[in-house]
Amino acid sequence: MTRSQILANLHTSLASNRPWLEAVARSAPHSIPPYVMPAADDLDAQFMAELHAIAGMAYPVADERAALTQIAALLADRPSPQIIAWEVEQIGLAGLAALLDQQGVTLATSDLHGTSRSAHLQNMEPLAICISGVEAGIAESGSLVLRHGPGRPRLASLLAPCHIAILRRSQLVRGLGEALALLRNRYGEEIFTSTSNLTLITGPSRTADIEMTLSLGIHGPPEVHVVLVG
Amino acid sequence: MSSQPISFYERVNTALDDTSLKTALNRATERFVGNRAGALRALSDANGLRDAARAIRAGALAQLDTLLVQLAERVEARGGHVCWASDAAEAQRYIVNLAQARQVRSIVKSKSMASEEIHLNQALEAAGVQVVETDLGEYIIQLAGETPSHIIAPSIHKTREQVSELFHQHLGVPPTDDIPTMTQTARRALRQRFLQADMGISGVNFGVADEGAVVIVENEGNARLSTSVPRIHVAIMGIERIVAHMEDLGVMLQVLARSATGQKLSVYTSIINGPARPGEADGPEEFHLVLLDNGRSKMLGSQYAEALLCIRCGACLNACPVYQAIGGHAYGGVYSGPIGAVLTPILQPDLPDVYLLPQASSLCGACQEVCPVRIAIPDLLLRHRADAVKAGKAHPIEQAAMSSYKRMMTNPFLYRAAGRAARNGSRLIGRKGRIRRLPPPLHTWSRGRDFPTLPAKSFSEMWEEEN
Ligand code: SF4
């Protein structure tokens, strides 16, 4: 059996090198820093500055009403009869369902596991807008943490050229270490019980594969708009 | 590699003669070096973070046997499948059989050096399955019929003019020198491939033992599409690429992104645990994890074990004056640059003149200084050289070798590159004076010839002085 052969090799190898590896492992603390940049006073400002630096857009708004106005403006600029989105209750922004109704916008079916997989994909492909909620925002890198799962499709931050994310000020953490600790506190050992995927998104899709020259939107959305509420 | 039967020296000479290669390497490595230095300088405690990264990786390797079992069990508990593959042939066979059993016609692939290691594309194509590389750089070199020349930037050796010509030929678009236009062409060409693919194949940056998850880091979104849209996801992971706890990512992702491209975090980090759960709209119905040994389990017990700490950030390539001068293909193996010169003789021992790779280094130490997990690469290269002598493989320096090295080391481009790197903060070459001897095997002709100094101080020391 290959498995037992590989494990047997590992046992033999570790018999000689484990002491050395353990010494290296002990040579520095494994503690995970909650954040790694010099601490900023104002997490909102830090988040927005970082997001801007990587070509994302942030819209600080005072309350849910203002958030809806902002979303309406983004929708108006990119007319799309259907959008790819999390279920409205998963986004958790009061009034969003009514806004979409009023604009005549419906949610595309994104279920790839039924019989019409290919039809659903082809239907979604030309759509202009994705809308998602987030689990947290990371101030020092301008990142969004998305915990996907039922009602929270991955394609709702991926397929269309414009991704709108709704982030609450209260969801901001300072650094990646803090974000991972928050997930652990909130879900314990159950982080992946009902979901197969966590994704960190740090700005728009980018590539520098041709002569190290930046261009946006190679496969994922070229536009990331974060509505920062509260 | 069988497709490159020509000797190492010939490849080096060809590379040195290639002026567009020089232009491309010049434009690219310069940017990488500057980005990395800037990203690390901004940290509160860059050295502390690198020390932690090294310690975390060593701790994981020290218990690699138990962590791999834990990872596999947890993947299986979620309904995923695990293949333990001792070599390239086993990994290939598993994936080809799976594709055939599931009637897979087309596959989208996101960047995976492990899949290059097992020559997967050739095997799948021989079985009649269409495979499309979807990372822009990989797509470009697939169109060109080449192999990656850099871990992070596989098409680093191509100029925009060459890419435009490839797209013109293969996709029928008009030639352009506008890079965003080329990017959009590739987006359109590849989108339908994603939507129609039956299987997605990815690499793995980190396996997370305690969660049974795999982590895939990228900037483009092609890995997200490859692992979310098709019915089947196959992830290929070198067995050493593991961390014990999900929290360890709080260190590893940050040093990886900063060392690789100078970003604070890569654009997309996917942490994937098994196939889609009930009620999830997307994500694959089947998840397969291929654990590839291919020499690693034995390497762990050897004097080269330290190289298994590597997180494939590519920083050592960008810092290396030899890589800057000859590019990735001259190394002949899957992994190039300083770490390639350490790994290839172990992972691909049958390559012709593979024993010469560890000699393609001036041992200047730049690789070790930039390595986020502080691998003592020059030391490992010296061990290879000693092994080659013991095995009776290293001959007195041949005439051919001499002329290659001479060209490499007297190439003005090399010194320009090193000078740029110095201005950008990594200071490969010291300020005062010249050195009179190069280490073996270069020393025989360095006598009587002056070379720029090797760094008098370590990178960290200079950094502390300057900041
Ligand atoms: S050896 Fe170090 S610098 Fe080179 S790719 Fe690996 S981790 Fe990066």
TrEMBL record, chain A:
SUPFAM superfamilies: NagB/RpiA/CoA transferase-like (SSF100950). It comes from the Bacteria. Signal peptide: none annotated. It holds the Pfam family LUD_dom. Coiled coil: none annotated. Residues 46-229 form the LUD domain. The lineage of its organism: Bacteria, Bacillati, Chloroflexota, Chloroflexia, Chloroflexales. This is LUD domain-containing protein.
Automatic annotation (TrEMBL), chain B:
InterPro entries: 4Fe4S_Fe-S-bd (IPR017896), 4Fe4S_Fe_S_CS (IPR017900), FTHF_cligase-like_sf (IPR024185), LUD_dom (IPR003741), LutB/LldF (IPR004452), LutB_C (IPR024569), NagB/RpiA_transferase-like (IPR037171). Keywords: 4Fe-4S, Iron, Iron-sulfur, Metal-binding. Pfam families: Fer4_8, LUD_dom, LutB_C. GO terms for molecular function: 4 iron, 4 sulfur cluster binding; metal ion binding. One of its GO terms (biological process) is lactate metabolic process. Residues 301-331 form the 4Fe-4S ferredoxin-type domain. It comes from the Bacteria. This is Iron-sulfur cluster binding protein. It comes from Oscillochloris trichoides DG-6.
